[in-house]
Amino acid sequence: AQSVTQPDIHITVSEGASLELRCNYSYGATPYLFWYVQSPGQGLQLLLKYFSGDTLVQGIKGFEAEFKRSQSSFNLRKPSVHWSDAAEYFCAVARYSSASKIIFGSGTRLSIRP
Amino acid sequence: DVKVTQSSRYLVKRTGEKVFLECVQDMDHENMFWYRQDPGLGLRLIYFSYDVKMKEKGDIPEGYSVSREKKERFSLILESASTNQTSMYLCASSGGSSGNTIYFGEGSWLTVV
User: Rounded CA gap, A103 and A5, in Å?
Assistant: First the structure.
């Protein structure tokens, strides 16, 4: 069965510092992988996605993520965070053949230290 | 850009009331979803629709029903609202040229008193 694990519930990073949010998935074949961001009281916004090809994908707002099949990971990174990046981040995995079978991680809340 | 619009952002309803949450998408997506989001529980799928008048139960369908009479519109219905249905409800859609990418609305905060 598919599953997604975001091991960090809450992370605090200083403004200007680099960021890495962890995501591990369990799925038998090549998955579709996503990162979403949710600002307080808002819906989820797609940051980036991986379907195939280059394992380093670029997203909006300066974020990138790297698919590592050997580690079953899809970690999200940003070289220098801004106070506006404070939000909740969700990793998700989907099967190609079924639009309904997208599984979300439990989320990582990011706080920014001034 | 894909736009998923939830007509009500904030609602307060009384226990036992019938509640309708409306969602419209403008990208001709065949798939539409209703999720519920609660602190510590993440996103849980209530219902999913893959075509007009077609639906599938998600992980937590009890106490909810849905309606999809037109492709662009997907309604979530609480037949008799209860306080444990106080939550944030998220509508989403996918399909067409977007493939498996799910696009979300802004969410509807429902409080049942």
Answer: 10
Distance separating alpha carbons of residues B2 and B96, to the nearest angstrom: 11
DSSP A30: P
Q: What 3-state class would DSSP assign to A80? A: coil
Instruction: List, for residues A11-49, the tens digit of each pLDDT value.
Output: 999 999 999 999 999 887 778 899 999 998 888 999 999
Place of tokens 């992370």: A11
Show the tokens assigned to A20: 């890495």
d(CA B38, CA B43): 7
d(CA B71, CA B69): 7
Specify whether the CB–CB gap between A21 and A8 falls below 8 A.
yes
Q: Which of A44, A93, A101 to mutate to test the interface with B (most CBs of B within 10 A)?
A: A44
Strand partners, B23: B6, B74
DSSP A39: -
CB within 8 Å: B104 and A49: no
